[in-house]
Task: structure prediction
Amino acid sequence: MREPLRLGVGAAAVALAGAAAYTLGAHAVAEGLGIGVVKRGPARPMVALTFDDGPDPAHTPRILDALASAGVHATFFMVGRKVDAAPAVARAVASGGHDLGNHTYRHRHLWTLSPAATIAEVDRGAAAVAGATGVTPRYFRPPWGTFNWAAYVRAAQIGEERVLWSVRPEGLLVAAPAARMVTHVVRRAHPGAIVSLHDSRGHPSTPEETCAALPGMVAGLRARGFEIVPLRVLLGGAP
Ligand SMILES: [Zn+2]
Result:
């Protein structure tokens, strides 16, 4: 009777090790070591602003207006389900000249999803963005910046560059007010910086504070000599 028990424990250990590799392993490679993932661009005097979790019918148009007033192109990592709910807002982002990224379809934490469910999330997210805007997203960012192996591999397979960030001003536990976000970004910006912002979700006040922070952020970055560019320029050198 002891043999089956030992086999059971062994199988459980193998399953646990597999699960750890699938989640923590991918996370360590992507976020810890930064292998195969972009967290900053080349060391040129450029900064990219990136917005996650939209499109949001209330906040995204205001953020688009603020960006247009400042003459800035940014990058939007969209949630497919929200694209389906507000396709006109997604189209407005694309027609504003901003870069589009895939932020999965339902914004589930990828550690809770099987490989098959993960691939479906990545593929459906990309399809929703492409379907609404006619633009195939070129970049992938997992929810909360957390990869599993299936997402890590699938994003590359469908031609999406994996992108995280190097500056995050919004506050983790408590929402940062606009003035503090401006100071944070302007102080911590560095050549090739990728700034993580949200045009939806986060803390309830975050998109509004982010919108209010944009003029000061842009002015402060420019005063430090940074050009503010979409990811295609930061990473690709495109004009
Ligand atoms: Zn997100």
In short: Residues 52-53, 103, 107, 143 surround zinc ion (CB under 6 Å). The chain has one domain: 46-236. The beta strands are 46-52, 75-78, 99-102, 139-140, 161-162, 193-198, 227-228. The chain has a mean pLDDT of 92.
